[in-house]
Amino acid sequence: MGFDLRADDALIVVDLQVDFLPGGSLAVNGGDEIIAPIEALAKRFANVLLTQDWHTPGHISFASAHKGRRAFELIELDYGPQVLWPDHCVMGTPGARIVSEPLLERAQLVLRKGYHHEVDSYSGFREADRRTQTGLAGYLRERGLKRLFIVGLATDFCVNWTALDAASNGFETLVVEDLTRAIDTDGSLTQAYAEMDSAGVRRIGASDI
Ligand code: VGL
Ligand code: ZN
Question: Is residue 158 annotated as part of the catalytic site, yes or no?
Answer without folding.
Answer: yes
